[in-house]
């Protein structure tokens, strides 16, 4: 972002120091373009900073125009800050229309001023230069959007390549892992039928078998990343899936002195990968529990919002540094010393396969909030 700002800053300085002078009273430059781009693509802080620099140059180069320019750009800044919040949700076509209308309003106000003051000759020149500015603005917008799309596609390609590497690695070791797991499970089943084993130990054996089965399920999920099983989609009681996930992780939470509260809407129906989405919740909750010290608190909420269900998993743990948030879900990236990062990688892929989205907000020392949106079905 700093490079982007300095490019816009250089553009403002260049266009203001080399304006198009078409009379002794009037000159024209393209300062509005980098100002618009700064607000829309950079946000309020870069936009206001660039506007302040522009006003400083105006005061230095043309003091008589300082206060009119100040008034105009105060209004323009307020409008651009408002547009920034809605702009990025629009299609490219609508983005061009929005900014074109905004600039045309500015050009129209300038034209009305010239006509009222009797500057007919300057009006025709201003009209031509406004057209040039509009074409330039549209070209810059399309160029930026094209570059953003290329960057997104490049990141997606890198992600796909990493997932392919994981799939190949998982496939190469899955067979070797399954064999000893099957052997251990078989011996445990034999031991569980022995009459010489106390009931307490028998319960431990039962838990061990369940965990081996869970490990087998996880291995299958890793392998399914590159080969999604569409036939596994089923309509389920999603409220029960979340409650079951909380129940599974509750023992681990108790061991770590973490209290889990919940607010789950009833009778949420959804078409999903039942076991996989349960693993998503367990992965996220487990990470949250491990991020907290003693007496930690975790809150899980699920509410239906129109055609989506919103799941929030919030903890008051150590939080995640801002520079690491963008890397969440990346293979082999983990905030834990002995973590692999594959748990969240699998979780992100499962959410993506269900046409959902996952968003993470975190502050160091305050905690982390995972917000998941998934489409529902009636």
From TrEMBL:
Tagged with keyword Ion transport: no
E.C. designation(s): 2.7.13.3
Top class in the EC scheme: transferase
SUPFAM superfamilies linked to this entry: ATPase domain of HSP90 chaperone/DNA topoisomerase II/histidine kinase (SSF55874), Homodimeric domain of signal transducing histidine kinase (SSF47384)
Transmembrane region(s): 6-23, 35-59, 65-84, 96-115, 121-144
Residues in Histidine kinase domain copies: 172-378
UniProt KW keywords: ATP-binding, Kinase, Membrane, Nucleotide-binding, Phosphoprotein, Transferase, Transmembrane, Transmembrane helix, Two-component regulatory system
Keyword Phosphoprotein belongs to the record: yes
Any one GO MF annotation of this record: ATP binding
SMART domains: HATPase_c, HisKA
Alphabetized Pfam families for the sequence: HATPase_c, HisKA
Catalytically driven reaction(s): ATP + protein L-histidine = ADP + protein N-phospho-L-histidine
InterPro entries: HATPase_C_sf (IPR036890), HATPase_dom (IPR003594), His_kinase_dom (IPR005467), HisK_dim/P_dom (IPR003661), HisK_dim/P_sf (IPR036097), Sig_transdc_His_kin-like_C (IPR004358)
Designated name of the protein: histidine kinase
Record organism: Pseudalkalibacillus berkeleyi
């Amino acid at each position: 972002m700093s490079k982007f700002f300095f490019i816009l800053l250089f553009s403002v300085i260049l266009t203001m120091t080399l304006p198009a002078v078409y009379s002794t009273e009037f000159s024209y430059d393209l300062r509005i373009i980098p100002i618009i781009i700064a607000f829309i693509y950079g946000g309020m802080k870069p936009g206001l900073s660039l506007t302040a620099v522009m006003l400083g140059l105006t005061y230095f180069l043309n003091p008589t125009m300082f206060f009119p320019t100040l008034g105009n750009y105060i209004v323009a800044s307020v409008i651009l800050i408002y547009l920034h919040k809605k702009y990025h949700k629009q299609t490219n076509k609508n983005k061009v229309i929005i900014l074109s209308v905004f600039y045309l309003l500015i050009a129209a106000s300038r034209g009305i001023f010239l006509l009222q003051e009797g500057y007919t000759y300057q009006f025709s020149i201003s009209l031509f230069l406004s057209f040039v500015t509009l074409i330039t603005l549209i070209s810059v917008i399309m160029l930026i959007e094209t570059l953003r799309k290329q960057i997104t596609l490049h990141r997606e390609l890198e992600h796909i390549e990493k997932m392919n590497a994981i799939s190949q690695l998982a496939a190469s070791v899955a067979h070797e892992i399954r064999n000893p797991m099957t052997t251990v499970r078989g011996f445990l089943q034999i031991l569980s039928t022995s009459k010489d084993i106390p009931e307490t130990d028998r319960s431990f054996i039962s838990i061990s078998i369940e965990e081996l089965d869970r490990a087998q399920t996880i291995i299958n999920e890793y392998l399914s990343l590159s080969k999604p099983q569409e036939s596994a989609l089923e309509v389920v009681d999603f409220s029960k899936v979340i409650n079951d996930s909380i129940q599974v992780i509750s023992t681990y939470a108790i061991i770590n002195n973490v209290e889990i509260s919940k607010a789950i809407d009833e009778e949420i129906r959804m078409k999903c990968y039942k076991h996989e989405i349960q693993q998503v919740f367990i992965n996220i909750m487990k990470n949250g529990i491990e991020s907290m010290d003693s007496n930690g608190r975790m809150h899980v909420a699920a509410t239906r919002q129109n055609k989506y269900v919103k799941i929030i998993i919030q903890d008051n743990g150590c939080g995640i540094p801002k520079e690491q948030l963008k890397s969440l879900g990346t293979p082999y990236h983990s905030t834990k010393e002995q973590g692999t990062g594959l748990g969240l990688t699998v979780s992100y892929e499962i959410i993506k396969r269900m046409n959902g989205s996952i968003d993470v907000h975190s502050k160091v020392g305050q905690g982390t909030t995972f917000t998941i949106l998934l489409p529902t079905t009636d």
